[in-house]
C-alpha cells in the first residue's frame, strides 16, 4: 500500500467519512482499503455489513469508472454474500478488490471481494452500474419540493 492514496476523482462525502483509500484505479480494476475504526463495528464487534456493502459498491463503481474516468456511474443493482466476519487485525486493514467484467455503452457489470488482513475472503458482491455524463456543475440540480399546508 502506498503512503499517498489515489483520488477518487470526485468528492464523495460519505466515502470520506468512512475513510476509504483508493489504491488501484486502472484498466477495469480497482482496490480500496478500509482502515477500520471502532465506529465501523456492529454489536458483535466486527465490521458492520452496511460498511462492507458500501466498500464493495465503491470498489465496483471505481472499477467501472477506471476505463472511462470522465463519466460517473450509479448503482442499478447489487447482490452481496457475506462469508466470514470482516475483522481488521494486526495483519492489516480490510482490502476490497474490484473488476469490470463486461461493459456496454451505457452499463457496467462488475464484481468485488473484501479480504481481511490475512487474505481471507470475507464478502463478495456483483453489481450493475449505469454510466452517466457528469454535468458541468458537478451533479444534477435538485429542486426543492414545497408541500402546501392549510
Question: What can you see in these coordinates?
Answer:
This protein is α+β, with helices and mostly antiparallel strands and 150 residues long. The protein has one domain (13-133): Hotdog Thioesterase (Thiol Ester Dehydrase, Chain A). It has helices spanning 13-18, 49-65; strands at residues 21-26, 29-34, 71-82, 94-103, 107-115, 121-133. A six-stranded antiparallel sheet has the order 1-2-4-5-6-3, covered by helices on one side. The longest helix has 17 residues, at 49-65. It is globular and about 40 Å long. The termini are far apart. The model is unreliable at 141-150 (pLDDT under 50).
Short characterization:
The protein is α+β, with helices and mostly antiparallel strands and 150 residues long. It contains two helices and six strands; from the N terminus they run αββαββββ. The protein has a six-stranded antiparallel beta sheet, with helices on one face.
